[in-house]
Amino acid sequence: MQRLSQWIAEKMEKKCVISKKVVLFSLTIHRLSARINLA
Questions:
Q1: What is the distance between the alpha carbons of residues 15 and 20, in angstroms, rounded to a whole number?
Q2: pLDDT single digits (tens) 6-15
Q3: Alpha helices, DSSP H only, in 1-39?
Q4: d(CA 9, CA 25)
Q5: What is the three-class DSSP state of 39?
Q6: What are the angstrom distances between the C-alpha of 33 and each of 9, 21, 23, 25, 28?
Q7: Is the pTM of this model over 0.70?
């Protein structure tokens, strides 16, 4: 049981990291497109 919860925690942590990267990536694209529109 302990191992299973640890495994789930690790999976959730990885998902959290990935989602943070995706959010940062989309924010960067949004800023770039805004700059292109202004230029």
A1: 9
A2: 999 999 999 9
A3: 2-38
A4: 24
A5: coil
A6: 36, 18, 15, 12, 9
A7: no
